[in-house]
Amino acid sequence: MSIAQFSIKKSVTTSLIIITMIGAGLIGLFNMRSQLLPNFNIPVALVQITWSGAAPEDVDKLVTTEVQDAIKGIDGIDSVTGYSSQGSSTVVIQFNYGTDVDDAVSDIQTKVNNIKSSLPDDTEDPYISKIDINAQPIIIYNLSGKDLTSLYDIADNQIKSSLEKITGVSEVEITGGLEEEVRVSVDPDKLAVYGLNVSSIKTLLSASNINMPLGSVKSGDKEFTVKIKGEIESVEEVKNIVITNSEGMKLTLGDVANVELTTADITSKSRDNGKDSVRIAITKSEDANTVEIIKEVKEIMDKAQKSVSDDVKFTVASDDSVDINQSIGNVSSSALQGIVLATIILFLFLKNMRATLIVAVALPTSVVVAFLFLYVQGITLNIISLMGLSLGVGMLVDNSIVVIDNIYRRMDEEKEDKVTASANGASEMAIPIVTSTLTTVAVFLPIVVKQGMAREIFHDMSYSITYSLAASIIIALTFIPMAASKFLDAKSAAVKEGKYLKFVKEKYVILLEKALRNKVKTILIAIGTLILSMVLGVMTLKTEFMPSMDSGEYQISGTLAKGLDLEKANRIGKEVETLINRKLYIPNYPQGKETSESLNVAIATAVICAEFRRQAAWK
Fold first, then answer.
1. What is the distance between the alpha carbons of residues 302 and 90, in angstroms, rounded to a whole number?
2. What does the alpha-carbon distance between residue 79 and residue 61 come to, in Å, rounded to a whole number?
3. DSSP alpha helices (H): ranges in 488-608?
4. What is the pLDDT of residue 413?
5. Residue 568: CB partners within 8 Å, gap ≥ 6?
6. HSE, side-chain direction, 13 A CA sphere, residue 76
7. pTM, two decimal places
8. How many Å apart are CA 359 and CA 361, to the nearest integer?
9. Do β-strands 242-244 and 313-319 pair in parallel, antiparallel, or remain unpaired?
10. Is 431 left (phi over 0), alpha (psi -120 to 50) or beta?
11. Is 287 exposed, middle or buried (0-12, 13-18, 19+ CB in 10 A)?
């Protein structure tokens, strides 16, 4: 018994199987992670070591070369490149595609730890990381208000811990604002009088600001945890810390030092539309759902907004979910339009509403079933995977049309009843449609198998097309014959050709006869067309790594010369913001950020009208 015969005889069982697959596909669709682009596995790792004040020559000889020599024996390395600059060493390790970068980073960590003792004593701990193009903030908030100290306190003590508890959040970065700190300014003369030194004061402060567990105490059937609460909670507690000198004299820290509540040194600044603000940037982990995380972040921020005073405002400076939802919506809309147009064209040629509806139902069914395979494969819902489904929409109906056309033929020419014609027609076309589908799948097979950047980018698209075509075969060999045996009739088998189709067939026959009479000329014309197309393609088509995307925003970034302070970066940032603010077609520039670590200036702006975007970016 063939698959088609089983589907017809066991129509209830077949219907239940298809409905189950549709339900599973919908569950997979609703549970797929949403993001703009798929996760790219870039096989590159970095080793960064800071050695403050060291000359580039010393950094290269004593740090960079040592690291390069240590990691050369790790498997899978393609190349190792070292960069040495004033006070900084960076080693870039390029691995072969297909290498597990997480395992490689662990091996690098082990190798570098083995040589830490041979590095200069005053170098900082090595920072080892892998390149992750998705490790960018997915949503950025700006907190604005009158008091930058209270803004930082709200961000650091009230909001940050809540955001870090969200599953999938890897980092919450706070920029700008003023952080409170207790500053202890010792008097060297008084230290000398009492026989004390700065080192002993520092040790005493560290020991006086810890909570110490003491164990547990049992009382009856209960057990209590005991600890010494030693954390400092006020400036007065710092002043009253008891100091004992070598002679046994007891005095307080306030006797030898000036203790005051002040703000820490400013290392970064952030502004919202020209006003100082506090910036909160949230970065997700590699496998997290961007849209779901942003949804949870907004819920937390909305609650936080209600708990603060009216003069504190929370504004969204950047939100990746907007672009993701818009891009996915556009691709989904295009796919839906393709389904509708394909249905209309089917009706124009089949001229039978029942047959059109059978094929039209098979089309979205194949797409939904494909989501089940994509979900099991772990593929995310992104513009690349949806692009594959959009490209496959036109091919999905091919198998169903071939089967239903053959069923028509057997009903019309062989005079078979609809049940027999459905079984024989579908079985007859099983091998041809499987073969034709496999030829299409074979085109995308090298992308999935061969390691390289093409695989990282088009991996999801290849699987989308492959799975959607596999689903179309299943539907064509099960649903189509089953539905045809129930809903088609002998009268619908004989369909007269319309005048337009008849006109096209007549012209095609004339053209085909001429081609057969002039075989050499036909072959030469085909070869000439191929060569001309290739030449024109090379001459006119431009190449680029990724197509440009217009999100209505652009960013101005600049790196200042070494040796300049944060205030200089701040002044330059304000000058750029002033120039931007003069452009009437730019409604706002939500974030301006200057950091002292790298002396970078970054300003993001939004352009209100599409026709002004190119002009705005260059002016």
1. 41
2. 19
3. 490-493, 499-517, 519-540, 566-581
4. 78
5. 560
6. 18
7. 0.69
8. 5
9. unpaired
10. alpha
11. exposed
- Six token digits for residue 558: 């600049």
C-alpha 124/C-alpha 122 separation (Å) is 6
Q: Tokens for 149, please give them.
A: 């100290």
The per-residue DSSP string of 490-521 comes to HHHH--PPPHHHHHHHHHHHHHHHHHHH-HHH
Q: Map residue 332 onto helix, strand or coil.
A: helix
Convert the pLDDT of each residue in 37-48 to its tens digit. Answer: 787 778 888 998
Question: Is residue 285 classed exposed, middle or buried when 0-12, 13-18 and 19+ CB atoms within 10 A define those classes?
Answer: middle
Instruction: Extract the tokens encoding 274.
Output: 């020209």
pLDDT tens digits for 556-598? 777 666 656 677 777 777 777 777 666 645 555 455 554 444 4
CB 87 within 8 A of CB 55: no
What tokens appear for 386 in the block? 């949806």
Using DSSP, state whether 474 is helix, strand or coil.
helix
Residue 49's CB: how many other CB atoms inside 10 A? 24
Per the structure block, which two tokens stand in for 584?
């009437």
Give the ranges where 413-452 is alpha helix by DSSP (H).
418-449
Per the CB < 8 A criterion, the answer to whether 594 and 559 are in contact is: no
Q: Which of 201-215, 305-319, 513-527, 591-605 has the lowest mean pLDDT?
A: 591-605
CA dist., res. 464 & res. 448, Å (int)? 11
What does the radius of gyration of the chain's CA atoms come to, in whole angstroms?
35
Residue whose entry in the numeric block shows the structure tokens 């057997």: 410
Contact 590, 609 (CB under 8 A): no
Host H or E run for residue 216: strand 212-219
Tell me the mean pLDDT in the region 251-256: 79
The HSE-up count of residue 278 (CA atoms within 13 Å, CB side) is 25
Q: Which two tokens stand for residue 539?
A: 């001459």
